[in-house]
Each structure stands twice: as structure tokens, then as C-alpha cells.
Design goal:
With about 325 residues, the protein is of the alpha+beta class. The chain has 2 domains: about 80 residues; about 220 residues, C8orf32 fold, CATH 3.10.620. About 30% of the residues lie in helices and about 25% in strands. The chain contains 13 helices and 16 strands. The strands form 5 sheets. Strands 13-12-11-10-14 form a 5-stranded antiparallel β-sheet. The model has no long low-confidence stretch (mean pLDDT about 90). This is Transglutaminase-like superfamily protein.
Length: about 325
């Protein structure tokens, strides 16, 4: 099918109505018309239809710019099958349709994080919420840390070994809360990290994403009397390390006294992408798997800090690639 024919058969108005666009206070419109058309595999007429249907934009020197999250969500739910978001996430979750044994073995990653202080005020200590895999049977060998003499940027590198274990939730109340969340009808969307910290807003809009979902579920676990905390981490093996996706899960102390991890949003997303991901969805409800590197960061905190006195948050970019 040609691009024109595929675009003509896409009911873009219905797609636009089905998602929640990023509110203005959290939106960063950085993608020009050309990038939007490429991402959505649509022509100019189709993009005009999306704008008429409510897709927010900013005009800069006669060129419209869009929020990348809005474009990702439109692509994800377009049903076209050939948009960049659909192709990327389909490739991303191929592992979820296969045997889970591969997710439970040891896996080693070349882990690199670059931190940039774009408004740096001078030399000062750097702080990275580092990989925290030892608690779950993993190992970390640090190769490079960022010294205070690195004024505006620096890199942390390590070899990180992760592993997995089947440890399903045993507490009936915890299992019930997880099932209630999955059945609540929230729609998974790409959401800016700053907006995800406002989990009440995200869920009020009927949407969900990793951090927002984990913050709400941790709150519900605590209300039920369980020690629980949303924690950030890194989802690995994503398009060769080229896609740095936000990740969070809930760590909760179960009735058997052990800490379980609930990766609720990944279970939702896997269900959305394929009906043949039941085993992986079960794994997300208490167990650990080797494609996640947990960190010491809480669910709505940053990964990195530079104590130079600048009020501008440090930019943190991870590049994580499998070594075996």
C-alpha cells in the first residue's frame, strides 16, 4: 500500500480523539513538520488534518513544531502498522512473546551515562543514582566516575550484570491491587518525565506510563499496609541502546518477607502490543528480569545532580548495550 493510500485510510481524527495530548505546561515542541511526517508516515494533508483535530504545535518562522510525545502516541495508536513508534515498540517487545528463560539468566551490559550541566556554575561534586543490582543477585564493576574537576559534563561507565528470578506476589491484597489497576482502563502513553511525577494529573486524564503508574501503585500498596516505594531504573536492550526510555517499578515487601518488583506499566504495554505476552505480563507482577537495571533513585527523582549551585536540572543520557 502506498503512503498516500495508507494515510487516506487512517482515521486521524479518531486517533487524535483517543489520546491525551501533553498539557502546555509540560510540553516541549521540538519536532518540525518534516520529522512529524516521517515519524507518522503521513503526508502534509494528513498532518494538517491532525492539527485541525487538536494536535498542539508552535509556529517558528513559518514552520510548525510538535511535542515528540504527542507524535509517538499518535503513531502508537494509529493502527497503520508502519509508523516509527509502532515499528520501534514492536521490535522492542519481541522478547516478550518468547520463552521467559532467557530473561532469567545472567546478562552483562556495557553501561554508560553522560551527565551535562548546561548552566554550570563551576567545579563541584557530581552525584549519580547508580545501578543498584546487587540486591537482586547482580554485579557492578565500575570503570569510570565523574570527578569534581569535570566542570560541565562527565561520564560514568561500568560493566553491569543483571539476572532474573520468578518471585510472584503471594499477598492476596497486593495481587488484587495489581489486577484492579490493570483492569482500570488506563491507556499507556509516552508522557514527559516531569509530567509523570504528577501522577494524579496523568491518571485523571485516563493515561498511564511507567513512573506515574509506579507512583500510584506504591501509594496504594502503602495504604494497604505494605512497605512500598516507586524506584527508577533503566530498561535495557532497547534498539541497540539508542532509545533511552523512562523506566520505573514498585518495590514492595510481600507477606513472605521478600522484596518484590512490580513493573505494572510494562505489563500494560506488552498487552497492548501483543496478545501473546501473557508469560511476560505475569513476570512483571513480582518477579525480576534481566532487561532492567534498578537504580538508587526514587520514582520521581532525577538520576543525576551537580552541586554547582545551578537551578537548572542536570541532563542525563544513558547508553546501555549488551555484551553477552
Amino acid at each position: 500500500m502506498s503512503l498516500q493510500a495508507a494515510s487516506a485510510s487512517t482515521h486521524w481524527e479518531k486517533v487524535a480523539e483517543s489520546i491525551e495530548f501533553v498539557p502546555a505546561e509540560y510540553s516541549h515542541k521540538t519536532q518540525p513538520d518534516t520529522a512529524a511526517r516521517e515519524m507518522l508516515r503521513c503526508d502534509q494533508t494528513e498532518l494538517d488534518r491532525l492539527v485541525d483535530a487538536g494536535l498542539p504545535f508552535e509556529d517558528r518562522a513559518g514552520v510548525r513544531h510538535f511535542d515528540v510525545n504527542d507524535l509517538y502516541n499518535l503513531g502508537m495508536y494509529s493502527g497503520k502498522g508502519n509508523t516509527q513508534p509502532e515499528l520501534a515498540f514492536r521490535m522492542l517487545f519481541r522478547f516478550a512473546t518468547k520463552s521467559m528463560d532467557d530473561l532469567l539468566r545472567d546478562k552483562t551490559w556495557d553501561f554508560r551515562v553522560r551527565m551535562d550541566c548546561v548552566d554550570c556554575r563551576g567545579e563541584a561534586p557530581w552525584r549519580l543514582e547508580a545501578p543498584d543490582v546487587e540486591r537482586f543477585g547482580g554485579r557492578v564493576v565500575v570503570h569510570q566516575v565523574i570527578e569534581p574537576s569535570a566542570a560541565s559534563s562527565g561520564e560514568y561507565s561500568a560493566t553491569v550484570t543483571t539476572t532474573g528470578a520468578r518471585t510472584p506476589l503471594v499477598a492476596p491484597r497486593l495481587r488484587s491491587l495489581v489486577r484492579d489497576y490493570l483492569d482500570a482502563g488506563y491507556r499507556w502513553q509516552m508522557v514527559p518525565i516531569a509530567m509523570q511525577a504528577d501522577q494524579e494529573l496523568v491518571h485523571k486524564l485516563g493515561a498511564t506510563s511507567c513512573i506515574a503508574a509506579s507512583l500510584l501503585l506504591a501509594q496504594q500498596f502503602r495504604a494497604a499496609g505494605y512497605a512500598a516505594e516507586a524506584k527508577r531504573g533503566w530498561f535495557c536492550g532497547v534498539l541497540g541502546g539508542a532509545l533511552d526510555l523512562p523506566h520505573a517499578c514498585v518495590e514492595v515487601t510481600d507477606d513472605d518477607g521478600s522484596v518484590k518488583t512490580v513493573d505494572i506499566a510494562k505489563a500494560q504495554l506488552a498487552a497492548r502490543l501483543s496478545s501473546d505476552t501473557g508469560d511476560f505480563q505475569d513476570l512483571c507482577q513480582g518477579s525480576t528480569y534481566n532487561k532492567v537495571i534498578p537504580s538508587t533513585a526514587s520514582g520521581n527523582a532525577s538520576f543525576g545532580y551537580h552541586d554547582c549551585g545551578s537551578p537548572v536540572p542536570v541532563q542525563v543520557r544513558a547508553d546501555i548495550r549488551s555484551t553477552r
